[in-house]
Amino acid sequence: MKNRIVNFSAGPATLPLCVLLQAQQDIINFRNSGMGIMEISHRSQEFMSLCDEIRQNMRQLLAIPKNYTILFLQGGASSQFFMVPMNLLKKGEKATYLNTGVWSGKAIQEARLFGDISIGFSSEKENFSRVPQQEELSIEGKAKYLYYTSNNTIFGTQYHYTPQVEVPLVCDMSSDIFSRPVDIEKYGIIFAGAQKNMGTAGVTIVIIREDLLEEAPKDLPTMLQYRVHAEKDSLFNTPPTFSIYIMGEVLQWIKNQGGITAIEQKNRNKAALLYQTIDASNGYYCGHAQKDSRSLMNVSFTLPSPVLEQAFLQQAQAAGLSGLKGHRLLGGCRASIYNAFPKEGVQKLVEFMQQFQQENPA
Ligand SMILES: *Cc1c(COP(=O)(O)O)cnc(C)c1O
User: Who has the most CB within 10 Å: 56, 66, 157, 244?
Assistant: First the structure.
């Protein structure tokens, strides 16, 4: 499609064109029901089977075992920052958090309202340029869980291993879920907002080990109990039907791409192109993340000066490369290259970067 540009937005982010084209039809007539996807009841057979299909596809793609429940919730990933400790911690109980950026910082702030939180690692003094190595983790002995953010969307860092600990892991995978295989059994809870790697804003998925559903104090507000949503198959109240539908289409697209290992390989190839360009630029482009913490999803980098950065962003925009401005907290540039981001887009950026460097020496 000629008028679509290369969109590096960090979220909501670019979607596969085929998903949008299918949605265009389904908005008007979903599976020959004579009604659009946004117009059917969430309790209709059509919608309930759609939810079943999506859960099955998720189970298949990520090899989610039977003793885990998949929930479709609202309130964004940010609501999980408080729902997790509300449901898992009673007053005075402990949990350990790893502080690797803005999103884990926010999660820590919320958790402190409900429990006794220890920090098992922080890269704050290094401006969050890396995630910890296994040897650096210090877990509170009585911790009920270890919480971390697998991909730090703003700083462009990512864990390339699963922390090995005695307690269940709780992980915010908002910006790298379905981008690579996950060893689900190590986790008590995985959650993710849909708008980075799974679809559009409005739905947050929670994958929770069933025994943890019973941990919640009974006096929590009904909507904030995982147990309630699990018992009602995420239909306790009206779910965000359209966002769920789009997520389903994106998962189907991942399946058609060859599943998670195929997607992972593509993600590796895309990120390698960009990091190679950064590394070959003799320091002109400088990646924020330390090498062994580099994210395959968000590549944050700077140029030799703010003036050059401004020119870079302007000329990139004019060349049809959009959304490259870094997050306001870090500055610089950021290329978000989630699952649905096409390799051709990365190739265009790499060529643009090389040409810009030649034309604008430091
Ligand atoms: C974007 C993001 C969030 C916040 O998601 P909302 O859905 O806006 O609440 C949380 N965690 C990570 C890792 C993110 O990338």
Answer: 157
